[in-house]
Amino acid sequence: MTVTVTKADTLPIHSGDDVVRVRQRVRALAIEIGLGLVDQTKIITAASELARNTLDYGGGGDMRAEIVQAGMRKGLRLTFEDQGPGIADIDQAMTDHYTSGGGLGLGLGGAKRLSNEFHIESTPGAGTRVTIARWK
Amino acid sequence: MDRIPILKLGGALIVTIQVDMHDRLALALEEDLTAMIVRTGARGVLLEISALEIVDSFIGRMLVSIAAVSRVLDAETVVAGMRPAVAITLVELGLELTGIKTALNVERGMALIQARLAEEEEDGHGGDRDRYEG
Protein backbone atom coordinates (compact mmCIF):
# COMPACT_ATOMS: atom_id res chain seq x y z
CA MET A 1 0.00 0.00 0.00
CA THR A 2 1.27 3.46 -0.80
CA VAL A 3 2.21 5.58 2.12
CA THR A 4 1.61 9.30 1.79
CA VAL A 5 3.07 11.99 4.01
CA THR A 6 0.45 14.44 5.22
CA LYS A 7 2.61 16.56 7.51
CA ALA A 8 6.34 16.85 8.06
CA ASP A 9 8.86 18.91 9.90
CA THR A 10 12.43 18.66 11.10
CA LEU A 11 13.93 19.35 14.53
CA PRO A 12 17.61 19.77 15.32
CA ILE A 13 19.28 17.55 17.93
CA HIS A 14 22.36 19.26 19.28
CA SER A 15 21.79 19.41 23.04
CA GLY A 16 19.96 17.75 25.91
CA ASP A 17 17.31 20.47 25.63
CA ASP A 18 16.76 19.45 22.00
CA VAL A 19 16.07 15.89 23.19
CA VAL A 20 13.35 17.31 25.46
CA ARG A 21 11.91 19.27 22.49
CA VAL A 22 11.95 16.10 20.37
CA ARG A 23 9.88 14.33 23.04
CA GLN A 24 7.42 17.22 23.20
CA ARG A 25 6.98 17.33 19.41
CA VAL A 26 6.52 13.56 19.17
CA ARG A 27 3.93 13.70 21.95
CA ALA A 28 1.98 16.44 20.15
CA LEU A 29 2.01 14.50 16.86
CA ALA A 30 1.07 11.22 18.56
CA ILE A 31 -1.93 12.94 20.13
CA GLU A 32 -2.79 14.54 16.77
CA ILE A 33 -3.11 11.15 15.04
CA GLY A 34 -5.08 9.76 17.98
CA LEU A 35 -2.63 7.24 19.44
CA GLY A 36 -3.71 5.82 22.80
CA LEU A 37 -1.80 6.63 25.96
CA VAL A 38 0.35 3.48 25.97
CA ASP A 39 1.24 3.85 22.28
CA GLN A 40 2.04 7.53 22.82
CA THR A 41 4.32 6.62 25.70
CA LYS A 42 6.06 3.95 23.62
CA ILE A 43 6.77 6.15 20.61
CA ILE A 44 7.89 9.08 22.80
CA THR A 45 10.24 6.77 24.72
CA ALA A 46 11.61 5.27 21.48
CA ALA A 47 12.15 8.79 20.11
CA SER A 48 13.92 9.81 23.30
CA GLU A 49 16.31 6.84 23.04
CA LEU A 50 17.09 7.53 19.38
CA ALA A 51 17.48 11.28 19.89
CA ARG A 52 19.97 10.58 22.66
CA ASN A 53 21.89 8.18 20.40
CA THR A 54 21.99 10.88 17.71
CA LEU A 55 23.36 13.32 20.27
CA ASP A 56 25.77 11.06 22.17
CA TYR A 57 27.10 8.79 19.44
CA GLY A 58 26.32 10.68 16.24
CA GLY A 59 27.64 14.02 17.47
CA GLY A 60 24.24 15.62 16.87
CA GLY A 61 21.90 15.63 13.91
CA ASP A 62 18.19 15.98 13.39
CA MET A 63 14.82 14.28 13.53
CA ARG A 64 12.33 14.41 10.70
CA ALA A 65 8.81 13.81 12.00
CA GLU A 66 6.08 12.81 9.56
CA ILE A 67 2.42 12.00 9.85
CA VAL A 68 1.86 9.28 7.29
CA GLN A 69 -1.23 7.68 5.87
CA ALA A 70 -1.68 4.26 4.29
CA GLY A 71 -5.27 3.76 3.21
CA MET A 72 -7.36 4.53 6.27
CA ARG A 73 -4.49 4.07 8.70
CA LYS A 74 -2.55 6.95 10.15
CA GLY A 75 0.90 6.64 11.56
CA LEU A 76 3.83 8.55 12.90
CA ARG A 77 7.17 8.10 11.19
CA LEU A 78 10.35 9.47 12.72
CA THR A 79 13.75 9.57 11.07
CA PHE A 80 16.88 10.30 13.09
CA GLU A 81 19.93 11.20 11.08
CA ASP A 82 23.47 12.13 11.94
CA GLN A 83 26.77 12.56 10.12
CA GLY A 84 28.72 10.91 12.90
CA PRO A 85 31.17 8.00 12.89
CA GLY A 86 28.50 5.47 11.88
CA ILE A 87 28.11 1.93 13.13
CA ALA A 88 30.42 -0.78 11.78
CA ASP A 89 28.50 -3.76 13.17
CA ILE A 90 24.78 -3.04 13.26
CA ASP A 91 23.86 -6.52 14.55
CA GLN A 92 26.14 -5.99 17.52
CA ALA A 93 24.78 -2.47 18.12
CA MET A 94 21.24 -3.86 18.15
CA THR A 95 22.10 -6.31 20.91
CA ASP A 96 20.73 -5.42 24.33
CA HIS A 97 23.32 -4.21 26.79
CA TYR A 98 25.90 -3.63 24.05
CA THR A 99 27.16 -0.08 24.44
CA SER A 100 30.02 1.85 22.98
CA GLY A 101 29.58 4.83 25.25
CA GLY A 102 28.77 3.99 28.86
CA GLY A 103 25.00 3.88 28.39
CA LEU A 104 22.77 0.96 29.22
CA GLY A 105 22.89 -0.24 25.62
CA LEU A 106 19.12 -0.45 25.33
CA GLY A 107 18.67 2.39 22.85
CA LEU A 108 18.46 0.65 19.47
CA GLY A 109 16.98 -2.68 20.55
CA GLY A 110 14.58 -0.91 22.90
CA ALA A 111 13.46 1.56 20.23
CA LYS A 112 12.84 -1.35 17.86
CA ARG A 113 10.68 -3.17 20.40
CA LEU A 114 8.67 0.00 21.05
CA SER A 115 7.92 0.60 17.36
CA ASN A 116 5.85 -1.14 14.69
CA GLU A 117 8.52 -0.51 12.06
CA PHE A 118 12.24 -0.07 12.46
CA HIS A 119 14.90 0.51 9.87
CA ILE A 120 18.56 1.38 10.30
CA GLU A 121 21.19 2.33 7.78
CA SER A 122 24.71 3.25 8.70
CA THR A 123 27.92 3.90 6.85
CA PRO A 124 31.11 3.98 8.89
CA GLY A 125 32.61 7.43 8.58
CA ALA A 126 29.48 8.93 7.03
CA GLY A 127 26.66 8.64 9.55
CA THR A 128 23.58 6.80 10.68
CA ARG A 129 19.91 7.00 9.83
CA VAL A 130 17.26 5.27 11.93
CA THR A 131 13.60 5.30 10.95
CA ILE A 132 10.77 4.12 13.18
CA ALA A 133 7.03 4.16 12.74
CA ARG A 134 4.04 3.55 14.95
CA TRP A 135 0.62 3.03 13.39
CA LYS A 136 -2.74 3.72 14.91
CA MET B 1 19.76 26.77 36.52
CA ASP B 2 16.61 25.06 37.74
CA ARG B 3 16.89 22.58 40.55
CA ILE B 4 14.42 20.03 41.84
CA PRO B 5 13.47 20.75 45.48
CA ILE B 6 14.17 18.10 48.11
CA LEU B 7 11.96 17.98 51.20
CA LYS B 8 12.86 16.40 54.51
CA LEU B 9 10.15 14.59 56.44
CA GLY B 10 11.32 12.80 59.56
CA GLY B 11 14.05 10.39 58.53
CA ALA B 12 13.13 10.55 54.87
CA LEU B 13 13.84 12.81 51.93
CA ILE B 14 11.05 13.38 49.44
CA VAL B 15 11.53 14.44 45.84
CA THR B 16 8.67 15.06 43.45
CA ILE B 17 9.83 15.13 39.85
CA GLN B 18 7.39 17.33 37.97
CA VAL B 19 9.38 18.49 34.99
CA ASP B 20 10.67 16.83 31.88
CA MET B 21 14.14 15.81 33.01
CA HIS B 22 17.06 17.00 30.96
CA ASP B 23 20.65 15.95 31.51
CA ARG B 24 21.88 18.77 33.72
CA LEU B 25 18.79 18.65 35.91
CA ALA B 26 19.22 14.91 36.43
CA LEU B 27 22.87 15.28 37.38
CA ALA B 28 22.11 18.20 39.71
CA LEU B 29 19.40 16.16 41.46
CA GLU B 30 21.78 13.26 42.02
CA GLU B 31 24.38 15.61 43.52
CA ASP B 32 21.90 17.50 45.67
CA LEU B 33 20.31 14.32 47.00
CA THR B 34 23.64 12.78 47.89
CA ALA B 35 24.72 15.91 49.77
CA MET B 36 21.36 16.07 51.52
CA ILE B 37 21.53 12.42 52.67
CA VAL B 38 24.92 13.05 54.24
CA ARG B 39 23.83 16.35 55.82
CA THR B 40 20.58 15.05 57.30
CA GLY B 41 21.44 11.40 57.93
CA ALA B 42 18.25 10.43 56.12
CA ARG B 43 17.58 6.69 55.91
CA GLY B 44 15.05 6.78 53.11
CA VAL B 45 14.59 8.59 49.80
CA LEU B 46 11.17 8.75 48.18
CA LEU B 47 11.16 9.68 44.49
CA GLU B 48 7.67 10.54 43.34
CA ILE B 49 7.41 10.30 39.54
CA SER B 50 3.68 10.38 38.77
CA ALA B 51 4.21 13.49 36.63
CA LEU B 52 6.81 11.80 34.43
CA GLU B 53 5.31 11.00 31.03
CA ILE B 54 8.16 8.74 30.07
CA VAL B 55 11.10 6.99 31.69
CA ASP B 56 13.73 6.28 29.07
CA SER B 57 17.04 4.55 29.69
CA PHE B 58 18.67 7.88 30.60
CA ILE B 59 16.18 8.60 33.38
CA GLY B 60 16.16 4.93 34.34
CA ARG B 61 19.92 5.04 34.73
CA MET B 62 19.59 8.16 36.88
CA LEU B 63 17.10 6.39 39.17
CA VAL B 64 19.33 3.31 39.45
CA SER B 65 22.34 5.51 40.14
CA ILE B 66 20.55 7.52 42.85
CA ALA B 67 19.46 4.27 44.51
CA ALA B 68 22.99 2.84 44.36
CA VAL B 69 24.65 5.92 45.84
CA SER B 70 21.92 6.22 48.49
CA ARG B 71 22.44 2.60 49.48
CA VAL B 72 26.16 3.17 49.95
CA LEU B 73 25.18 6.06 52.24
CA ASP B 74 22.77 3.75 54.10
CA ALA B 75 19.55 5.19 52.75
CA GLU B 76 16.94 3.22 50.88
CA THR B 77 15.32 4.54 47.69
CA VAL B 78 11.67 4.01 46.86
CA VAL B 79 10.26 5.13 43.52
CA ALA B 80 6.56 5.86 43.80
CA GLY B 81 3.70 6.72 41.48
CA MET B 82 4.89 5.41 38.14
CA ARG B 83 2.17 5.74 35.51
CA PRO B 84 0.83 2.46 34.12
CA ALA B 85 1.78 3.38 30.53
CA VAL B 86 5.30 4.18 31.70
CA ALA B 87 5.56 0.82 33.50
CA ILE B 88 4.40 -1.07 30.37
CA THR B 89 6.90 0.83 28.22
CA LEU B 90 9.77 0.27 30.67
CA VAL B 91 9.26 -3.47 30.55
CA GLU B 92 9.17 -3.50 26.75
CA LEU B 93 12.23 -1.27 26.59
CA GLY B 94 14.02 -3.90 28.67
CA LEU B 95 15.01 -1.58 31.49
CA GLU B 96 15.42 -3.18 34.88
CA LEU B 97 15.35 -0.88 37.85
CA THR B 98 17.96 -2.91 39.70
CA GLY B 99 18.15 -2.20 43.41
CA ILE B 100 15.12 0.09 43.43
CA LYS B 101 12.06 -0.51 45.53
CA THR B 102 8.85 0.65 43.93
CA ALA B 103 5.52 1.63 45.42
CA LEU B 104 2.19 2.31 43.78
CA ASN B 105 1.87 5.74 45.35
CA VAL B 106 3.43 8.14 47.85
CA GLU B 107 1.43 6.74 50.74
CA ARG B 108 2.69 3.20 50.20
CA GLY B 109 6.18 4.45 49.48
CA MET B 110 6.29 6.35 52.77
CA ALA B 111 4.95 3.25 54.53
CA LEU B 112 7.90 1.24 53.19
CA ILE B 113 10.36 3.81 54.45
CA GLN B 114 8.58 4.20 57.80
CA ALA B 115 8.66 0.42 58.23
CA ARG B 116 12.40 0.44 57.81
CA LEU B 117 12.82 3.29 60.29
CA ALA B 118 10.54 1.56 62.80
CA GLU B 119 12.44 -1.70 62.46
CA GLU B 120 15.62 0.09 63.37
CA GLU B 121 14.01 1.76 66.38
CA GLU B 122 12.87 -1.63 67.61
CA ASP B 123 16.34 -3.05 67.26
CA GLY B 124 17.51 -0.25 69.51
CA HIS B 125 19.65 1.10 66.75
CA GLY B 126 17.59 4.15 65.87
CA GLY B 127 19.89 6.74 64.39
CA ASP B 128 22.90 4.46 64.79
CA ARG B 129 24.58 4.37 61.41
CA ASP B 130 26.93 1.52 62.39
CA ARG B 131 24.18 -1.02 62.71
CA TYR B 132 24.56 -4.44 61.18
CA GLU B 133 21.91 -5.52 58.75
CA GLY B 134 21.68 -9.30 58.47
CATH class of chain A: Alpha Beta
Percent range for β-strand residues of chain A: 25-35%
Structural class of chain A: alpha+beta
Radius of gyration of chain B, taken over Cα atoms and rounded to an integer in Å = 15 Å
Mean pLDDT of chain A: 92
Largest sheet of chain A: 5 strands, antiparallel
Task: Tag the structure with descriptive keywords.
heterodimer; A: about 140 residues; alpha+beta; Heat Shock Protein 90; five-stranded antiparallel beta sheet; about 35% strand; B: about 130 residues; alpha/beta; Transcription Regulator spoIIAA; five-stranded mixed beta sheet; 5 strands; about 15% strand
Short structural description:
The complex is a heterodimer of chains A (136) and B (134). With 136 residues, chain A is of the alpha+beta class.
Task: Walk me through the structure.
The complex is a heterodimer of chains A (136) and B (134). Chain A is an alpha+beta fold and 136 residues long. Chain A has one domain: Histidine kinase-like ATPase, C-terminal domain (Heat Shock Protein 90, 2-Layer Sandwich). Helix content of chain A is 36%, strand content 34%. Chain A has helices at residues 16-32, 37-56, 90-94, 107-113, and strands spanning 4-13, 61-70, 73-82, 117-123, 127-135. Chain A has a 5-stranded antiparallel β-sheet with strand order 1-2-3-5-4, covered by helices on one side. The model of chain A has no long low-confidence stretch (mean pLDDT 92). Chain B is of the alpha/beta class. Chain B has one domain: STAS domain (Transcription Regulator spoIIAA), CATH 3.30.750. Chain B contains 4 helices and 5 strands. In chain B, α1 (23-40) runs parallel beside α2. The longest helix of chain B is centred in the N-terminal third of the chain and has 18 residues, at 23-40. The N and C termini of chain B lie far apart (42 Å). The mean pLDDT of chain B is 88. Classes of the chains: A alpha+beta (136), B alpha/beta (134). Chains A and B meet through α1, α2 and α4 of A and α2 and α3 of B.
